[in-house]
Design goal:
Elements lengths: L4 E6 L5 E3 L19 E5 L12 H4 L5 H8 L4 H19 L8 E3 L1 H6 L7 E6 L9 H17 L11 E4 L3 H13 L3 E5 L5 H9 L3 E4 L11 H11 L3 E2 L9 H16 L5 E5 L4 H12 L5 E7 L4 H11 L5 H4 L22 H9 L4 E5 L1 H14 L10 H9 L8 E6 L6
Parallel strand pairs: 5-13, 6-7, 6-9, 7-8, 10-11, 10-13, 11-12
Antiparallel strand pairs: 1-2, 1-3, 4-5
Helix pairs in contact: 2-5, 3-6, 5-6, 5-9, 9-10, 10-13, 14-15
Length: about 425
């Protein structure tokens, strides 16, 4: 099969970037603005995939990194070999590689929430993915692009710039795991509140950790992101899960939506916890690519809900631009679901499209519902997800009284508990 991605187009200004471009991280017309993001352009036609347990082999023909490699002469066999080579290296570090993760009905949660036998709650378990969350899915396509550039002679393998990421936990662990697998130096920008267990693991993986308190004089927003951007400006590779910083993270994220569509093709709604927005963007893009009709519901907590605010502003006035609806949360973000406390939803266009094009919505959940979701998850499944990882279920709890009893609902459990 010939890869289907033909290039990139900026959602804000329409700038087009050819698929053969080396390191197409950001819109070339963005300047200092982070309200530009490259979105994948695909030629018309049905979904292309093969039966394989590794999603990056199964959906090779739909991935932008693969189209890039194909454009430079790397055939399907060579791409598959590269995916499996890197996957083996990751598994040697982490104990697991990339697989199609299970999506199964939770009878216990479904019964507790009074769904009928036809309906219920299906849980996609990403906690046994690389580094214990979905984050490595986004990062692996960046890594594949980087290594393909070296193998194809497009970049000097002996002069690797450091990778850089801003993260409070799961994304940092995923990025550092992949970096360790390739012996690639990485700098991780974390908040002062980062868990000691996370910091210890980052140290064991060889990451250089930089703690980022809020500084007087900083612009509004996350200080970790500010320090990350300074590192990128100094030459580091943006190796994070924010599309405006590196669009290739949105490439791998689509595999999650594709797998949900394959596992529950008649799902009515998919609830997705939202921080920076890359996960809901990937889920929405994957569902649409597969032709699924499920409505996407984005979930944020009352202690930090910039996406919900933007959603209602844009719903009331659809012509409002990115700058007019999305800005950093004014208060100090707070919730037990610490992994979705991004000051702003960086991937607003993808999150918006996930909801708007599916007929979905956004919901703010209370801390009581965040806690109840965690309790339900641990009473009725064996998945050891943290409050962030089960926050999508909090959205189901919040909206349950407005839902039909036979609705088929999917949630993503992602992020194991760490203390």
């Amino acid at each position: 099969m010939i890869p289907t991605v033909t290039g990139w187009r900026c959602d804000t200004c329409g700038t087009e970037v050819p698929v053969a471009t080396v390191w197409p991280w950001r819109c070339p017309a963005a300047g200092e603005s982070r309200h530009h993001v490259l979105r994948i352009v695909r030629r018309p036609g049905p979904l292309q995939h093969v039966d394989h347990p590794n999603p990056f082999v199964a959906y090779d023909a739909e991935l932008a990194w693969a189209s890039f490699a194909h454009a430079h002469g790397m055939d399907a066999a060579a791409r598959r070999a590269l995916v499996l080579e890197l996957d083996d290296a990751v598994a040697a570090v982490d104990g697991t590689g990339f697989v199609v993760t299970p999506t199964t009905r939770s009878d216990g949660i479904s019964d507790e929430l009074a769904f009928t036998g036809r309906g219920g709650v299906w849980v996609k378990d990403e906690t046994h993915n690389v580094a214990g969350s979905h984050k490595a899915r986004h990062l692996f396509t960046i890594l594949l692009h980087l290594v393909a550039c070296e193998r194809l002679g497009l970049r000097d393998a002996s002069a690797r710039p450091p990778l850089a990421i801003a993260s409070c936990g799961n994304a940092a662990l995923a990025a550092s795991t992949l970096a360790a697998a390739m012996r690639w130096p990485i700098r991780v920008f974390v908040p002062p509140s980062a868990y000691p267990a996370v910091l210890a693991r980052l140290d064991a993986l060889g990451a250089v950790v930089v703690t980022c308190p809020r500084r007087d004089g900083d612009l509004p927003g996350d200080p970790c992101v500010h320090r990350f951007r300074e590192a990128v400006a100094a030459g580091a590779v943006p190796f994070g899960v924010q599309g405006p910083e590196n669009a290739l993270c949105l490439d791998g994220g689509r595999t999650i939506g594709l797998e949900i569509a394959a596992a529950v093709p008649d799902a009515d709604r998919v609830f997705v916890q939202v921080g920076g927005g890359a996960l809901v963007t990937g889920v929405g893009d994957g569902l649409r690519l597969a032709g699924a009709s499920a409505r996407v519901v984005a979930v944020q907590t009352e202690g930090c809900a910039p996406l919900v605010r933007a959603w209602y502003l844009s719903t009331a006035a659809p012509d409002l631009g990115w700058d007019q609806v999305m800005w950093p949360w004014a208060d100090e973000p707070a919730s037990a679901a610490t992994g979705i406390l991004d000051d702003e939803t960086y991937d607003w266009p993808g999150a918006r499209d996930a909801m708007r094009l599916s007929g979905g919505s956004a919901v703010t959940v209370s801390e009581d519902d965040v806690d109840d979701a965690q309790l339900l998850a641990h009473e009725h499944t064996t998945i050891d997800a943290d409050h962030t990882g089960t926050a999508g279920l909090a959205g189901v709890i919040t909206l349950r009284n407005t839902m039909e009893h036979d609705e088929r609902v999917v949630v993503v459990f992602s992020g194991i508990r760490r203390t």
